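Person: I have long wanted to understand how a fold can be written as tokens. Underneath my words sits a plain record pairing an amino acid chain with its backbone structure tokens. Those tokens are not coordinates but codes from a learned vocabulary of shapes. I should like you to check that the lines agree and flag anything odd. The protein I mean follows directly.
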Amino acid sequence: MSQLVPLEAFDCDGDSNSVGIRWEKWKRGLEIYLQATNTENPSKQRAILLHVGGLPLQEIFHNIPGALVSETAENNVYTIAIEKLDNFFYKKQNRYFERHLFRSIKQEQNESFDKFLVRLRQQSAKCKFSSEEDQIIDQIIEKCASPDLRKKLLTLGDSVQLGQIISEANAFESVERQLNEFKIPTSINKIDTNGPKLLPLACTRCGNSNHKADSPECPAKDKPCKKCGYIGHFQGQCRTRASKRKSKQNNSKPYKRAKIHEKPKSERKSDRKDDNPSEVDYIFHVDDDSVVSCQVGGVNVEVLIDSGSKRNIINDETWSYLKKNKVVVMNQVKSPKKTFMAYGSMKPLTVLGAFDANIAVGTKNKAATFYVVKHGSRNLLGKDTAVSLNVLKIGLGINTIQEKTFPKFKNVELDITIDSSIKPVLTRQFP
């Protein structure tokens, strides 16, 4: 009897929405105790009920009309006491509100089916359903977290029982847990040996990636450029050098060579074959419009051709973009011993790292070294790499016409169509 909790611990005058279910649980414990002690006399059962229930329960019992009756052959004093107390505690509950709470219960993510079922059982006991099992079945099918489990339960038909649903749900949950154990990640520390996967480059005339630059469907093939005046490309894709534009403007000023304090040779170290701390690379692009769309390590980026530098430079913002898009690189080095100076600047640029990657422009593909510079304004493609990719040509052979290009025919006149609306331009002749 000492293991029974006195009913006064439940605070009978407290939460009226839950006092009924708390009374039901306490009464269940009392019934078990009476059976364990083999107490069958109604008067003794009532006495134990009031004694273990404590003073608050005794006060309630003695103030309920008709609860305290004398024992006769017709009156079972214990049964009468239980009925009167049931009417007192259960009238404090609002079954419609409890049913609303029951309908709002759903299985949460990562909640086991057993815990979900326990919550449904606890709440359904307060609702006074005429068919509690059917209500629990409805709530399980409607509010379970897995659509696959719901589909499986619906296939069981109308004759399904709660016990069968519980068995199916537990088996389904066990199989799902076992399947998750089989999902072993296979991409950890995986090395891509196939090289970069090249994506289709955008058209260099209009910027559209759905066709090539020589496609007859290109909308820019017969449109004049608003920047250089030539026909065949849009302004956003213009690569015409400033000196070749129809409206020439040259505001460039000479830059002074900056001095840098070098470390003694004994302190110099190199992390790469081409890194020489005693050598200063000067970065100076001669044309702001020499932008090329390319792929670095399989990721599309735009670079500015810098014929004044031998090295390829990208800024830290582009490096973050490349990593986010899973760029493929090799020979990555942190903080290489390399010095870069911008013309006109007295302070070296901060080099964060270097790496090797394949760079592709059109059908040309080449392995090159790139240096990551902190707070860089543009991505620069060095002269050597630009020449090898055929996006930069240096020398007197640019735009020249070889005599062997045209065949010779005797006594034949050619009529060359000239657009009179185009203003003639004098081009400098090389000796």
